[in-house]
From TrEMBL:
PANTHER family (alphabetical): ASPARAGINE--TRNA LIGASE, MITOCHONDRIAL-RELATED, ASPARTYL/LYSYL-TRNA SYNTHETASE
Sorted UniProt keywords: Aminoacyl-tRNA synthetase, ATP-binding, Ligase, Nucleotide-binding, Protein biosynthesis
Family as reported in the entry's similarity comment: Belongs to the class-II aminoacyl-tRNA synthetase family.
Domain of life: Bacteria
InterPro entries: Aa-tRNA-synt_II, aa-tRNA-synth_II, aa-tRNA-synth_II/BPL/LPL, Asn-tRNA-ligase, Asp/Asn-tRNA-synth_IIb, NA-bd_OB-fold, NA-bd_OB_tRNA
EC number(s) recorded for this UniProt protein: 6.1.1.22
Residue span(s) of domain Aminoacyl-transfer RNA synthetases class-II family profile: 132-433
Protein name: Asparagine--tRNA ligase
Alphabetized GO MF terms: ligase activity
EC top class, as a word: ligase
CDD domains membership: Asp_Lys_Asn_RS_N, AsxRS_core
Length: 433
RNA sequence: UCCGGAGUAGCUCAGGGGUCAGAGCGGGUGACUGUUAAUCACUAGGUCGGGGGUUCAAAUCCCUCCUCCGGAGCCA
């Protein structure tokens, strides 16, 4: 039993020639005369070579019996793989920390249902490790971006008294004498009063939508970052969203090369997004283009999934679509002064079939207009009295957006479904593990 | 909610009225001079999603329910 301190796999490239100790889990074990253990410790993956000549007899024996996901410590010499040049460990001693019997997720292929039931174990796979580390990098990048840009974090409540947008279905729960409370589907309405205190704010947390959506792009619980900026107009918020998106792509390209390679992500589209100005198109222009490309959409209708696909197949750059008919947008959107049928909203569509990642726009600053909209949408004025105060005491133009974290991760990793972008996905039919 | 597809070994699947329900992976035992989804041999492992029906006979055909997958709508 050695008293040598442990190192981590991520440091091994700088420790060639040294004798080190590692601890982790057996990803796979292959036995021949020389035995091979693929070890993962959370920081990376390394092959451990157990030869009869170098390892002590008990360790050599143990190496032949290791099962998938057994927890072990390994002591050995860091050397370079004779063929690949990657760091590997020539083992001197092995110790079993915790055995593992019949780990369900074997090296063969598995179906989605099985993997979802075993999500807590699926997290150990290389692919999930890579995805969730990129998610981590996005979360950190989002905070760094807004913090560095002078934003103040203003956490929004999760328990709310009513719908923020009035359209989507909400999860409800009993709340003492108030009757029902609802899980927040957006923190935006709480950011707007905040900008009058801090100028620029953002919230970043889980949001909930009880929509019965069964698509590759929907979760019932997802994370959203929502910046809000005082004195900002529609163009400002599109520029902000574009700058943030590029910042995040750059962070991933710089810091997550190993993960992108595990995912076999073609990096060219990300580099294109990073190095070009995003396209911009009004809703009206988009409808004309869609008609020219064969869609049966009519002006005044929202885009269907097919429409987004048609639009994005024509480009390899992210696309801002702005100035939508206000009929299908939220009550708080500022109308276009040049065309009152339009709202000053903008959505960012990601290329490669990922569709809407950001939705936002300029908020109505006129008290009178908002009151009309609340009435028109048949909302309860009493619920919004506090929100209306933003327009009574120094109302200013302001704008903001929301970006769905999971959709951004799905695009950057080029995943087929958002269920892999969050540790424990919540969907219509999925509440456990 | 609607439209399509699928539920057979721990996992991924084959078998589609009639003999004992099969393979690969994983597990077990053994072999094997550096393997990397290692390979090879042997071996254990099944209420064929639940219920009902047709038939001499149902994993197989019919009805129904459940679950999952893909798509639509709605959205970030």
């Amino acid at each position: 039993m050695s008293s040598q301190p442990f190192t981590e796999v991520r440091f091994l490239a700088g420790q060639v020639g040294e004798t080190v100790r590692l601890r982790g889990w057996v990803r796979n074990a292959r036995t021949s005369k020389t035995r091979f253990i693929e070890l993962r410790d959370g920081s990376g993956f390394v092959q451990c070579v157990v030869g009869a000549a170098e390892a002590d007899p008990e360790s050599y024996e143990l190496a032949g019996k290791l099962t998938q996901e057994a927890a072990i410590t390994v002591t050995g010499l860091v050397q370079q793989h004779p063929k690949t040049g990657q760091p590997e460990l020539l083992v001197k001693a092995l110790e079993l920390i915790g055995g593992s019997t019949d780990f369900p997720i074997t090296p063969k292929e598995h179906g989605t249902e099985f993997l979802m039931e075993n999500r807590h174990l699926w997290l150990r796979s290389r692919r999930q490790w890579a995805i969730l580390r990129i998610r981590h990098t996005l979360v950190k990048g989002i905070r760094d971006f807004f913090d560095g840009d002078g934003f103040t974090l203003l956490d929004a409540p999760i328990l709310t008294p009513s719908a923020c947008e009035g359209t989507s279905t909400l999860f409800g729960t009993e709340y003492f004498h108030e009757g029902m409370a609802f899980l927040s589907q957006s923190g935006q309405l709480y950011q707007e009063p905040g900008i009058a205190a801090f100028g620029k704010t953002y919230c970043f947390g889980p949001t909930f939508r009880a929509e019965k959506s069964k698509t590759r792009r929907h979760l019932t619980e997802f994370w959203m970052v929502e910046p809000e900026v005082a004195f900002a107009h529609l163009d400002d918020v599109m520029a902000l969203g574009e700058r943030m998106t590029k910042f995040l792509i750059q962070r991933v390209l710089e810091g997550r090369q190993e993960e992108l390679k595990i995912l076999e992500r073609d990096q060219a589209p990300l580099e294109t997004a990073l190095n070009t100005t995003f396209d911009r198109m009004t809703y009206t222009e988009a409808v004309e283009k869609l008609k020219a490309l064969g869609s049966d959409i009519n002006w005044g209708e929202d885009f269907g999934n097919d429409d987004e696909t048609i639009l994005m197949n024509a480009t390899d750059k992210p696309l801002w679509v702005h100035r939508f008919p206000k009929a299908f947008k939220a009550f708080y959107m500022e109308p276009d002064p040049l065309d009152p049928r339009l709202a000053l909203g903008a959505d960012l569509l990601a290329p490669e079939g990922y569709g809407e990642v950001i939705g936002g726009g300029e908020r109505a600053s006129s008290l009178q207009y908002l009151l009309e909209q609340i009435e028109h949408h048949q909302l309860s004025r009493a619920d919004y009295e506090w929100y209306l105060d933003v327009r009574k005491y120094g109302s200013v133009p302001h704008a903001g957006f929301g970006m769905g974290l999971e959709r951004a991760v799905a695009w950057i990793c080029k995943l087929p479904h958002v269920r892999e972008t969050i540790p424990y996905p919540r969907m219509m039919g999925t509440l456990r593990p």
